[in-house]
Amino acid sequence: MTVAAGLGYALIALGPAFSLFAGVVARKPFLVLTLLSSTLFWLISLIVLSGIWRGFLPIKSGTWWAYAILIITSVALQEGTRLVFWRLYKKMEEMLDAFADRISKPRLSLTDKMLISLAGGLGHGVAHAVFFCLSLLTPAFGRATFYVERCSKMPFFLASALIALGFLVIHTFSMIIAFNAYDEKKKCDQIVVPVVHLAAAVMTLVNLAPGGCLIGTPLLLVMAALTLQYCWRVACRRLTEHQHRQLNDN
Amino acid sequence: MADAAATVSGDPRGRPTVLDSLGEDITRIVYPVSACMLLVVLLVSLLSSPSAPSPLAVSIAAATGGGGGSGGGDDIPTALVTALTFVVAVTAATFLLALLFYLRCTPCLRAYLGFSALSVLLVLGGQVALLLLSRLRLPLDAVSFALLLPNAAGALALAALAPASVPIALHQAALVAIAVLTAFWFTLLPEWTTWALLVAMAIYDLAAVLLPGGPLRVLLQLAIERNEEIPALVYEARPVDPRHGRNWRLWREGRQPGADLDVSSTTVEVIGEVFGRNLDSNSGNSSSPQVHGVATSAGDANNSRPRATLAAALSSADSTIAQAEEVPVLREHRVAVAEMSVPLIQPRPERSGEEEEDEDGIGLSSSGAIKLGLGDFIFYSVLVGRAAMYDYMTVYACYLAIIAGLGITLLLLAFFRTALPALPVSITLGVVFYVLTRTLLEEFVVQCSTNLLMF
To answer: Which residue windows are transmembrane per the record (chain A) (predicted)?
Structure first.
């Protein structure tokens, strides 16, 4: 429904990402590069996934278990990508620390590391929102709107924009939790991230039932809020511990 | 909590860490390339009607005798023939340019450059403006249009060709405008022709810059011999906003003899230095102090007279390379190249140039900023514009592929420190991603998201 509606849907899905980008990421060029490379990673993982599943598509619409297998394999692959990203990030951190030592500047501080993980997570979230929501949004700039059969109360674009928003938040902040967990080697946090991702993805299966999107979408946004709150707790704890350690050292 | 965080970090107002400025020169190239691609995608989505054959396609069909394909000349043999013709024409023009440069006909080159820039802005710019006016139904009468267009074209052409006399932002905007208009014109070609042209130009770029007889390499060697700049349309990523960036010239002159790298080094130099350094420390290279000594003296000389001692630096670097080669080879490949990257801390001043506004190749300028030829802008945008004619998903995928290719080329530039062709890696990745997206990704994503299933 006209350009205004199309822009509105795009901003629902990507508005927080834009503000995070403008406020945090754009100030440090290295974070922009991190964001671009993590977006590329996510795209490559998605292409690999679609390559694997291409032979089995299109899935007949009665078989919800096929979709469940698809979701489980997708989440598994993406968590694997996160681990690979973590390894690459460790190598990059070594190089950066070596360079900082050479020019006698301070090494990467804790905030820097968290910022890098934020940019990485934002890259994943932006890639998700762009490929799943934004690329299908072109008809929304026209004159009418579109409803899917199983979701007759909400325009399709609105539902996909809200789900994209939820997943953007989940991807961004679970990357921070994950990087903290890998750094501190905390098993429980390391498990929390894939579990949250899997739970959120499985929750979208609810959308397969008629009228399910009215339940699934708000639940997903609740999960996103939970992830955000958990990340806030993890970050605060880590920062206060770091500060206490610094004060004790001094 | 907020002040806890502030005291813990070396926060932005406190000591700046290494993260603050690293990568700035790369983003200064990525932003204009992205802006150019965005403008071309916008123009293509506003103005193209894929159902109607473009006038160019009709004329190509007429030129090839109208035989062959049914789609107005859009079939593979015609596409290959057209692409080959174009590459041959570009090669001939580049050799002509090299000849003119050899004969020191600089006024000829400048006149040709001015003519091509002006004609692009006037003819193509006028055509695009007319299409926009009719599509968006903007009210503008013919007299005002006839008054505005030549003036705007002249001003932008002047801004593009004489960077010293206009603000940097205007100069860069004029270059991007020329690239956008040319790229939009290229997207009007039929589909197979466009793809064949892109692949052919990528191969040509690779051959012309790296093969010993290639026209661009010849031009580059001539320029290095004479320490002259080739007159060409090149985008140089100097800081657009002096408030954010550093004043490059000031930094260069005030460089200390001992500190060969500081925070204001470009990322490209940093990468080269880090890799060279790692190899040095691993091998325990005893000749490295000598190497650095040569480098810093060459660096000092180069600071005061940016171009005069280049030949001296090269010859001294060669002799130290001969010494360094006795070092045992390590597990890391490209050790010979990385050894070369250690002495030459001062980047070389100039690289390749080419005909009209097409200038392929990426390199480092005398101020350390990255230079990217306008031809690269044009062909990146052509690829993305052609992807936009299919669907936006291919646009995003190709955009990421091209930026990744640009990043890889910059890494290679940090390794090799010579002029490199910027087209092949990006175009290859772009084409691969386009094909993969169109065949594999689209079906999958549409299946999932129309069922509102996301992960």
So the answer is: 6-25, 30-52, 64-85, 115-137, 157-179, 191-209, 215-235
